[in-house]
Design brief:
single chain, about 850 residues, alpha+beta, 24 strands, globular
């Protein structure tokens, strides 16, 4: 895997629906240029709060581990929403913040699987919208408490008529009163189905906020009933139990106080949760989630509720509790649980803007946190989050806080080195003067390469952004900590280009970071030439802002040309594209329809590269005709150029792919390739590099991902500890040309089992080659669905499950979503250790599932092929 710019953000990814084509995977959003914004220096510049009010949170979802290569992106957001996006969540968890309708049910493709929060089967018998919409009164309550939580979670995604039939106020009142009736008997777990009632109510508030016309209004009667139900729950002493069973329920109830917009009534509850937390909670992940649910929902979003602000003004001790929490738990910073401390600072800084009375009570706590944290080092995340929100929402006290012009202050501290390179300003954390000069030279040369490639006639008339800043952080960790607060970019990505050529006050920015290993980019600046191509494309080829640019299916061009130029300009081989060419997965006419909503990472990047390269080599006149329309803002006309080709180029493209994979598309000079063989803690590496054209490969340099390296051609290396390491090979030919390729090597010490690295696809139900999905769970009777794409020539597929607790049966199907009633192979041992081996499977999508014979959690599914 190499670069990858942005494929949905936490927000944008939920706005986009699943793709409709039967064999295509849904995508995640884009990384090309998007409109930018700048943090405000004070209240005068704030947007109307009603325009940025964050809506109730949706379902908690399983998230892929953060990846440098696979990178969702979002347009820069108003501070209210940006704060929500960067609000920390437990590892492997994200939260739905926008409506995401389910797709239609079908068994032919992974796309057809319903988009439920826990990847469950929404269309399974007994779990359809009609099953809920057709019930009322005691029948609805009984049905809810008997349903699985995964089933109820599907309701967060209903829309239109389904939303209206399920969540009218009379049904919400019925379920709210049922919650009130159950709450006094709460036993600290979900033995009575109380969690399903809470989830239904959360889903109702969420769906109504996104489908108000279909659902209708909610009035004071529901608010009053909600308070009564919540009062009954919080009066039960078991809600203070420190256990995962209670944490699971408590987390959702705390969010419900926010969903129902009654946060001001529960300050005492919030204070108790804050003051009760200590490190003993760390043994109970669900209790940590409960604490964080309070921090990321009512104590964040409540600040937009006048009743909450009035309650804080009357009793500001909740702010004292937040400050004490933030300063008292700085030991969490730098650990997997640091999100708790950071989110306390996030809330405290936001709360300071709730009016003069709250400001007077809170400002001392804010200043104490800022004075107790440094901008750089371990406390950096706490400082940045607290300062950003205080600076925006309470900007009148920026001198008191020391946060005036916060972006400039952070830039000075973290990006102190600068080089002006023509119309480019390069800001960097750690690039040496020689590296800065090399980056400048690379960008200058890319200008010429780009103009020769697209044959433009100068900048698109009437647009701006003629100057650009390139910000380069030293590490991904620093990029995650600081870039969003300086540039208002989302950070769940591998870098972002932020620009709006239609705004005279905008200055384009490419935000990037250096990789820890040689990635083939100048000075190891990840995505340097790909991101810069987005900027050039936006200035010279595309009229309008980013939303206008993507008004037609043209992602094959936007991402494909950036990928193609990045490799062609650097004179290196896109080895992943070569691997894909040999598979013949897509027709050219299919790639032409790429959008950020219907394309996965592979279809977007390597196949975009192949399509753009083919068109430049075989049909450049079509590209120039298309760009002629794009440059005038006629995107429909540009789309008509290639859409009108239909399938006429498909056969030739298919033949070209064979030649490309056979060596015709390898860059002149060296291409770094290698194989690996692992035995225990030792990996044997075999050079398979090729030289194209004149010259010969003269030297090899390996980095093993543990701080060691070798200059041998075929080295062996023994690791001190088991794990997954990035091994990178750099080859140099006798003329000085170099090429680099990384790969993951997973080793085990002794006889211990090795878990492959986590799969990197943004879809959390997607498996991949020699990778794993950890932390899977389901309640008894439910199914967790996954899938894998097998390339042609796969001789053996092995699927295993390990770890965790409970009993999870493993099922495999060649043609449809696997389940206990539809499978071609199964493993049904007691416990969670299962294994299926499939010999000589054909190419295409194959389906895997875990059926919960009993409740299971913490299970890892791994593939080997």
């Amino acid at each position: 895997m190499r670069h990858r710019i942005p494929l949905p953000t936490l927000l944008a990814g939920f706005v986009a629906g699943c793709c409709a084509a039967a064999t295509l995977l849904p995508a995640v959003a884009s990384a090309a240029p998007v409109p930018s914004g700048t943090p405000s220096a004070g209240p005068a510049a704030k947007a109307d709060p009603a325009s940025v009010l964050p809506k109730p949170l949706g379902a908690f979802l399983t998230a892929s581990p953060s990846s440098e290569e696979l990178a969702p992106v979002a347009a820069p957001l108003p501070p209210a929403l940006l704060g929500q996006v960067v609000m920390g969540q437990p590892a492997g968890t994200t939260v739905q913040t926008s409506a995401r309708p389910s797709s239609a049910s079908s068994a032919s493709s992974p796309v057809a699987k319903p988009a439920a929060a826990a990847r469950t089967a929404a269309a399974a018998a007994g779990c359809t919208p009609a099953d809920f919409g057709g019930r009322s009164g005691a029948d609805l309550v009984s049905y809810l408490t008997g349903a699985s939580t995964d089933c109820v979670n599907t309701l967060f995604n209903v829309t239109g008529a389904d939303a209206g039939s399920i969540f009218k106020e009379d049904k919400m009142l019925t379920v709210t009163k049922a919650l009130q009736a159950q709450a006094p008997g709460y036993t600290g777990d979900n033995s009575t189905g109380i969690l399903q009632l809470v989830l239904f109510l959360r889903a109702g508030w969420f769906v109504q906020s996104n489908n108000a016309d279909a659902v209708g209004p909610y009035d004071g009667a529901l608010t009053t009933a909600s308070r009564a139900a919540l009062d009954a729950f919080f009066a039960n002493p078991h809600r203070k139990d420190v256990s995962d069973a209670n944490g699971t329920v408590l987390s959702e109830v705390l969010v419900l106080t926010d969903s129902a917009n009654v946060q001001g009534s529960y300050l005492d509850v919030y204070k108790q949760v804050l003051s009760s937390y200590d490190n003993s909670y760390n043994a109970f992940p669900k209790m940590l989630k409960a604490v964080n649910s309070m921090l990321s929902a009512p104590l964040w979003r409540g600040n937009w509720n006048p009743d909450f602000a009035a309650a804080v003004a009357a009793d500001p001790s909740v702010a004292t509790a937040l400050g004490s929490f933030a300063l008292g738990h700085t030991d969490l910073l730098g650990t997997a649980n640091e999100y708790l401390d950071v989110n306390a600072g996030n809330d405290l800084g936001r709360m300071a803007g709730d009016g003069p009375k709250v400001e007077a009570a809170v400002k001392g706590q804010v200043k104490a946190v800022l004075d107790g944290a440094q901008i750089t080092g371990t406390t950096g995340p706490l400082y940045v989050h607290t300062a950003f929100n205080a600076n925006y929402y309470d900007g009148g006290l920026c001198s008191y806080y020391g946060t005036c012009n916060l972006p400039a202050k952070l830039t000075a501290a973290v990006l102190p080195n600068q080089l002006v390179c023509d119309n480019r300003t390069i800001l960097t954390e750690a690039l040496s003067p020689a590296d800065l000069a090399a980056v400048c030279a690379s960008l200058r040369g890319e200008d010429t390469f780009f103009h020769n490639l697209v044959k433009d006639n100068g900048p698109v008339p009437g647009q701006y952004d003629k100057n650009i800043t390139l910000a380069v952080f030293a590490t991904r960790a620093d990029y995650l900590t600081y870039s969003w607060a300086i540039f208002n970019n989302s950070t769940d990505n591998g870098g972002q280009t932020v620009m709006d050529p239609t705004d005279p006050n905008n200055r384009a920015v490419c935000v990037m970071y250096q990789k820890a290993w040689n990635d083939g980019f100048t000075a190891n600046v990840w995505n340097l030439n790909h991101e810069y191509t987005h900027y050039l494309d936006g200035i010279y080829d595309m009229k309008g802002n980013f939303s206008t640019e993507i008004s037609v299916p043209n992602i094959w061009w936007i991402e494909g040309v950036a990928e193609y130029e990045s490799y062609a300009y650097r004179g290196t081989t896109d080895t992943q594209a070569m691997e894909e060419a040999a598979k013949h997965t897509y027709k050219l006419s299919t790639v032409f329809q790429n959008t950020y909503g219907n394309s996965d990472t592979v279809r977007t990047y390597p196949w975009g590269y192949l399509a753009v390269r083919y068109m430049f080599e075989k049909h450049p006149a079509d590209i120039y005709a298309m760009l002629g329309h794009f440059r005038t803002g006629d995107y429909q006309g540009g789309y008509a150029v290639y859409n009108g080709l239909g399938t006429s180029y498909d056969a030739d493209f298919d033949a070209w792919l064979d030649k490309c994979a056979g060596g015709a598309c390898y860059a002149d000079g060296p291409t770094a390739l290698f194989g690996q063989s692992v035995s225990g803690a030792t990996v044997a590496l075999t050079d398979k590099s090729v030289q194209t054209g004149s010259g010969r490969i003269a030297s090899w340099h390996w980095t093993f991902g543990d701080g060691t390296s070798s200059g041998e051609r075929n080295p062996s290396h023994t690791y001190a500890a088991k794990g997954a390491y990035t091994v990178a090979l750099t080859v140099t030919d006798d003329t000085g040309r170099t090429a680099s390729t990384p790969a993951t090597v997973t080793v085990a010490t002794g006889s211990g089992a090795t878990t492959p690295p986590t799969c990197t696809d943004q879809r959390t139900d997607a498996l991949g080659k020699n990778c794993s999905r950890p932390g899977l769970s389901a309640t008894a009777g439910n199914v967790d669905y996954l899938y894998v794409y097998l390339p042609a020539g796969t001789s053996t597929l092995k699927i295993t499950t390990t770890g965790g607790t409970g009993t999870a049966y493993l099922y495999y199907s060649e043609s449809t979503w696997a389940s206990p009633s539809s499978f071609t192979a199964s493993s049904t041992n007691a416990g969670t250790a299962q294994s299926i081996t499939v010999s000589n499977p054909t190419a295409g999508y194959r389906y895997v599932s875990l059926y919960a014979k009993t409740d299971f959690s913490g299970v890892t599914v791994s593939t080997q092929f």
